[in-house]
Amino acid sequence: MKKRSLGTRLEQFTDGDVAISVQDLHKSFRLPTEHAGGLKQAIFNRLRGIRGYRDQRVLEGINLEIKKGEFVGIVGRNGSGKSTLLKTLAGIYYPEKGNIVIDGTLVPFIELGVGFNPELTGRENVYLNGALLGFSNEEMDEMYDEIWKFAELEKFQNQKLKNYSSGMQVRLAFSIAIRAKGDILLLDEVLAVGDAAFQQKCNDYFKSLHGNQTVVLVTHTMENVRKFCDRAILIDAGKVKLDGDPNEVADAYTALWK
């Protein structure tokens, strides 16, 4: 299995049971503070020492290891850095300092339905989304019927996607995404899809992953942390505050709001 390294230095694993290794991870974003209003104003601001941006630090020295087969929940308040961490693991963001090493194939369930075209039919979007996930037309032919059956949307295949409700679109995107079999799954709140019956179907799917795939779940739903996770990590202000038993982490997260 190839290891993928992302960061400022390469560290090879000494433990073959590790799926994800994160070492001293830092990430910040440059946010505009004012509009220069043209080149003259920009030069004037520069001469006065006025910057048109500020640096927002999001991740500040994250260290963690996730074992192969673990189902790990990452929790924290809005702005804590948990989704930035997930997107950095996925390679969407690049760390400015630190290192990430991934051992295995990785499938991110972060932006379900990215690449969907509302002017195309459901059928056409299935093949389009499948191609974005790396499937051939022949592979999509084989799984096509099962995708629609799982999404419970068989009678809508030939309707344009713009006529689907948002819930229907998410169900279809989720049904496509779970066909991508990877060693590591990154999930950002995708458990909350569809109605109660469909959510139960999704819950059954995620239960089946235990011990078979490594799963990292970013969520605000402590019920899911307690129900699915073997371990949980609380992030606050870009740092790991607690790493351990899911019930203890869920309690600590709930205490943040008191």
Briefly note the structural class of the backbone: alpha/beta
Strand content: 25-35%
Number of strands: 10
CATH class division of the domain at 3-45 and 54-105 and 211-255 = Alpha Beta
Spatial strand sequence of the major β-sheet: 6-7-8-4-9-10
Q: What is the count of helical runs?
A: 8
First and last CA, distance: 45 Å
The topology string of helices and strands comes to: EEHEEHEEHHHEHEHEEH
Oligomer: single chain
In CATH, the architecture of the domain at 3-45 and 54-105 and 211-255 is 3-Layer(aba) Sandwich
Task: Please describe what this structure looks like.
This protein has 258 residues and is of the alpha/beta class. The chain has a domain at 3-45 and 54-105 and 211-255: 3-Layer(aba) Sandwich (Rossmann fold). It has eight helices and ten strands. The longest helix has 15 residues, at 137-151. The chain starts with a strand and ends with a helix. Residues 7-14 have low confidence and may be disordered.
Looking at this protein, list some descriptive labels.
258 residues, alpha/beta, Rossmann fold, 6-stranded mixed beta sheet, 4-stranded antiparallel beta sheet, 10 strands, 28% strand
Short description:
The protein has 258 residues and is α/β, with parallel strands linked by helices. The protein is built from 8 helices and 10 strands. It has a domain at 3-45 and 54-105 and 211-255: P-loop containing nucleotide triphosphate hydrolases (Rossmann fold, 3-Layer(aba) Sandwich), CATH 3.40.50.300.
